[in-house]
Automatic annotation (TrEMBL):
This is Semialdehyde dehydrogenase NAD-binding domain-containing protein. It holds the Pfam family Semialdhyde_dh. It comes from Nepenthes gracilis (Slender pitcher plant). Signal peptide: none annotated. Belongs to the aspartate-semialdehyde dehydrogenase family. GO terms for molecular function: NAD binding; oxidoreductase activity, acting on the aldehyde or oxo group of donors, NAD or NADP as acceptor; protein dimerization activity. SMART domains: Semialdhyde_dh (SM00859). Residues 44-159 form the Semialdehyde dehydrogenase NAD-binding domain.
Length: 356
């Protein structure tokens, strides 16, 4: 009988894309198998914003999933350059991000903010790099695929790795990813006419500094001190408030409108009605969302549970019929997801895996 390690190696070495390793989207190594990430026939990778919360999660996910690579570059701001990071048992020095950082790089994972992406992502693409960008900079560009691998992998079928042509792929907003992971399988079955989303978003969505400030504020409030308010400009510990994204002329904030616009693009349906209310809650990590779905065709609770129970990446939680609607034309679902993991780093790495 073929050993697990040999089976995995055979799996990596078969395939017809430009690069030979072709791991399954959901591949995970048993702990007993020696990692085979560092491979001469793998792509060269760079991580932009490597010292941030999502950048660090990029490394964790790459390691956990034994993503094959022949080299990896750790890139960050000038302030972080020179720091040492350990990845897969090897020591790396963080390099300053410059226009020359993408020479010879096949895949670049970006999580350094929209302004950095706008400046450096086009440079990387021009050099032949495929960029997977975690910022909002290019999400609504009609020429840039906005991808959740379990939802709309067909959006990036034209992007090929190792063929000398760069490309840009956008990672959706964390709230959109978490919502659509659960809503899409139901949408495929009965078509969603209208979706109402209320989000409860953790500090992780605002990065490592926000998580640190929540921890600091919690200590300060418990000790009877005035809380330090630098990231959100108001007390976050033991408090709830509307998401801190800028409010637009229509009264919605940018985070709420991301859910509206990104859902329509990912589902390729400009007519689906979506409304959202986004709230910050004082927890470290993972967002929760209350999602009300109205369908064109009936869909009962038991069928919905069966559908979601068979979907990769989903576990069945709370599902109930919307009693405000007649028949089985509405469902209420409560969705939770790790914002840094699936809402950012894991989704980006899954996109990269689809290129192999």
């Amino acid at each position: 009988m073929e050993s697990p390690a040999l089976a995995l190696q055979r799996h990596f070495l078969t395939g017809s894309s430009c690069f030979s390793p072709k791991p399954s989207l959901s591949l995970r190594l048993p702990a007993a198998i020696v990692r085979m990430s560092l491979r001469e026939d793998g792509p060269s990778v760079s991580v932009v914003g490597v010292t941030g919360a999502v950048g660090q999660e990029f490394l964790s996910v790459l390691s956990d999933r034994s993503f094959p690579y022949r080299s990896i570059r750790m890139l960050a701001s000038k302030r972080s350059a020179g720091k040492h990071l350990t990845f897969d048992g090897r020591d790396y020095v963080v390099e300053e991000l410059t226009p020359d950082s993408f020479d010879g790089v096949d895949i670049a994972l970006f999580s350094a903010g929209g302004s950095i992406s706008k400046l450096f992502a086009p440079i990387a693409v021009e050099k032949g790099t495929i960029v997977v960008d975690n910022s909002s900079a290019f999400r609504m560009d009609e020429n840039v695929p906005l991808v959740i691998p379990e939802v709309n992998p067909e959006a990036m079928v034209h992007v090929k790795l190792g063929c000398g042509k760069g490309a840009l792929i956008a990672n959706p907003n964390c709230s959109t990813i978490i919502c659509l992971m659960a809503a899409t399988p139901l949408h495929r079955r009965s078509k969603v006419k209208r979706m109402v989303v209320s989000t409860y978003q953790a500090a992780s969505g605002a990065g490592a500094a926000a998580m640190e400030e929540l921890e600091q504020q919690t200590r300060e409030v418990l000790e009877g001190k005035e809380p330090t308010c630098k990231i959100f400009k108001q007390q976050y510990a033991f408090n709830l408030f509307s998401h801190n994204a800028p409010v637009l002329s229509n009264g919605y904030n940018e985070e709420e409108m991301k859910l509206v616009k990104e859902t329509r693009k990912i589902w390729n349906d400009m007519n689906v009605k979506v409304t959202a209310t986004c709230i910050r809650v004082p927890v470290m990590r993972a967002h929760a969302e209350s999602v009300n779905l109205q369908f064109e065709n009936p869909l009962d609770e038991d069928t919905a549970k069966d559908i979601l129970g068979e979907c990769p990446g989903c576990g069945v939680g709370r599902i109930r019929r919307d009693v405000s609607q007649d028949g089985d034309y509405g469902l209420d679902i409560f969705v939770c997801g790790d914002q840094i993991r699936k809402g950012a780093a894991l989704n980006a790495v899954q996109i990269a895996e689809m290129l192999l």
